[in-house]
Every structure is written in C-alpha cells, then in structure tokens.
Amino acid sequence: MLPIDITIILESLNENENEEGEKKVGTLNTIDGTPPYNYIIKNTNLFFIKNNNEIFTNKIFNYEEENIYNILIKVTDNNNQKFEKQINILINDINENYTDITLILENNTISNNITLGTTIGTFFTDDPDINGNNTYSYSISNTSRFRIESNNLITNYSYFYNDFDNENEKNYNITITSTDNDSGYSIIKNFTIIFTKL
C-alpha cells in the first residue's frame, strides 16, 4: 500500500520567535504505506529531522523578518514507496523589549534666550515589533532645567542666558527613562542638549 498522506502533531500551534537552541516543532506520521518510514526535509535547512520522525528548529527565528515557513517533507516507506507534502510552520510574534530612545529636535539650533515652556523636541521609543502598539511613559532626571510633558521635552527655566559666561555654546546633559506602560520594562539613555549664545 502506498503512503497517501503525512500528518504532523505540533508541540504547540506556532513556534515562538527568538528562542535559542534546538526546539521540537512536532512529530510526523504517515498514513498507510509500510513502516518503518524515513523522512527528509527537501527545501530548507532551517528545520531538520531528529529521532527519525521529529522536526526540530535549526535557527533563531525573527517574526519581523519572516513569520511563515513552507517546508517540503518527503517520506519513504519500507517498500521504497515515496510521498511528499508541504507543511506550513507559523512563527509567533513575541512582544520584544525596545532597543533605543531617539529625540527629534524642533530646531537644530537652540538659543539661550528661549522662554519657559518651549518645546525642545519629541522623544520616540524604537520598538522592534512590526505591529508594536505599546505606549510609553518618559521621565527625566539630573536636571531642573527641563521637564517632560507626554513625550515632549519642555524648557522649565526662563534664564538660560544666565548660565553663559564667555562661551558661545553650553551643553546640558539629561537622562531620559522610557517605560513600557504594559510590561513595565524600561530603558535609560543620556542626551546632550546644546544651547547657542545669541
């Protein structure tokens, strides 16, 4: 009797991204044919067969790069009868910790006569997830010259010109913390705000 189908019993409905090491995807079974069966994966080396009929991962997957893999399974039974079938392996999108904070300035030049309550720039948190819809809270430390409103950097001081002596530029170092409102994960980044004397 010829093999007529290949089925797979999955360990889970989908595979998670970013998981290291060999991870079992599922177990193959053949309908009809004469056991024992020999399985091979023909079209990719991202998965491999182990223990005769078990599929394992051979890489760390990234949902943002690719989230569905079509693999071609070939089975040969004890009578050298063959059957091939394509099976889709889906990758789960895991909420990944964000990686960076960027500051987009309103103007490239900030003068020392700027007034209280002026928006200096806007903070953004870099989220590696394609469908990232997380919200973030920002806080500032080590300075009283600025404050945060929503994700905007605002002046909190009216007399920046008093900070200048003979220099034409003055640097203000600030530390920004971005916190994911859902997971509570946070990252910290230092910025230097440069003011120019007019």
Q: Can you give a write-up of this model?
A:
- This protein is mostly beta strands.
- The chain folds into two domains: 88 residues, Sandwich (Immunoglobulin-like); 97 residues, Sandwich (Immunoglobulin-like), CATH 2.60.40.
- Helix content is 0%, strand content 51%.
- The protein is built from no helices and 16 strands.
- The protein has a four-stranded antiparallel beta sheet, with no helix packed on it. It has a four-stranded mixed beta sheet with strand order 2-8-7-4, with no helix packed on it. Strands 9-11-14-13 form a four-stranded antiparallel beta sheet, with no helix packed on it.
- The chain is rod-shaped, with a radius of gyration of 28 Å.
- The N and C termini lie far apart (90 Å).
Shape by Cα distribution: rod-shaped
Report the strand count. 16
Radius of gyration: 28 Å
* Helical fraction: under 10%
Task: Report the total helices.
Answer: 0
Distance between the termini: 90 Å
Query: Could you describe the largest sheet, including whether it forms a barrel?
Result: 4 strands, antiparallel
CATH superfamily of the largest domain: Cadherins
Query: pLDDT under 50 segments (min length 5)?
Result: none
Please indicate the percent range of residues in DSSP E strands (runs of 2 or more): over 45%
**What is the element string, with H for helices and E for strands?**
EEEEEEEEEEEEEEEE
CATH A-level architecture of the largest domain? Sandwich
The CATH class of the largest domain: Mainly Beta
Structural class: mainly beta
Largest sheet strand order? 1-3-6-5
Number of domains: 2
CATH fold-level topology of the largest domain: Immunoglobulin-like
Mean pLDDT: 89
